[in-house]
Give the backbone structure.
Amino acid sequence: MKPTVKQQTMAHFFDALGHPRRQMIFQILKETGPEGLPFHTLLRRTSLTPSTLSFHLRKLDQGRLLKRKTKGRETWLSLDLRTFFLFVEPARAQVKIRA
């Protein structure tokens, strides 16, 4: 038996958020909003090297959490929260959390 496409997508999603640096990038992009940030601004805000940031952005891409847009000579990055809401919101609705 093979994993379904949804199961594979879910695995990539949780892997994408399974590292502190990717959580940091996610938080920065969430606070920025739908317009996003140019790569070099995100690079400066994270204090990561270009290759490290690119690696973590690829993981967020694989988790279907990232949008890229070219504006002039720059690549702008923002969050694509459709996958987030696909997996997180239904799970949260099914789980009763007691404070």
Observations:
- The longest helix spans residues 20-32.
- The chain has five helices and three strands.
- The domain at 5-94 is CATH 1.10.10.10 (Arc Repressor Mutant, subunit A).
